[in-house]
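Researcher: Last one for today. Full complex below.
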Amino acid sequence: MAVNIYDTANQLEQELRGTKEFKELQAAYTTMQANESAFNLFKEFQEIQMQLSQKQMNGEELTDEEVQKAHDLADKVGNVDEIKTLMGKERGLNQLMNDLNQIITKPVQELYQG
Amino acid sequence: MAVNIYDTANQLEQELRGTKEFKELQAAYTTMQANESAFNLFKEFQEIQMQLSQKQMNGEELTDEEVQKAHDLADKVGNVDEIKTLMGKERGLNQLMNDLNQIITKPVQELYQG
Ligand SMILES: [Ca+2]
Ligand SMILES: [Ca+2]
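Model: Here's the assembly. Have a good evening.
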């Protein structure tokens, strides 16, 4: 390759750090982390989500108890301002990442549609 | 932003088209597509895979019949040279895409590990 594609990926990474979306996510995370009870709840929620998505990826059905526990935690999490704000910023960054990903994977999408 | 991050993503997309990995995938796809029976089998396999991963994402368990059908198709597909070659090239491109993705998502990974 004439240009090293990894250099461009690293450039994109640096630029991502400078976006409004990333900076706001970073600020929201720091604020959330500074509140111990919010941070503990957030970590618990993350762990449950990881466990359940792991099970789903393995093709295992979730038990009613697991679904209930995830819903209960989601309710709790939705009542903590610091986490609500963080999740809003996650959605903002995800939107940006999806847009970028859409662009980057275009060659492959086109190939498989053709 | 001083630099438009979308410009960089578009640059990455253009560079991706020029990589050995993408060009070889493209060539393998064209060869596979030119063989009608290989292409038909490939499309059938793709469709089944999409249906099953959709079910899994919905948290539904796969029936034994579905798992069997997917295995049978995978066996058939594994015996068609054009598709075997294509799949090898898919693995090559996936490796590259994963590497790039690892770089680009580093800021977010770091934030959530911190
Ligand atoms: Ca504590
Ligand atoms: Ca036919």
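The domain at 5-113 of chain B is CATH 1.20.1500.10 (YheA-like fold). The radius of gyration of chain B is 18 Å.
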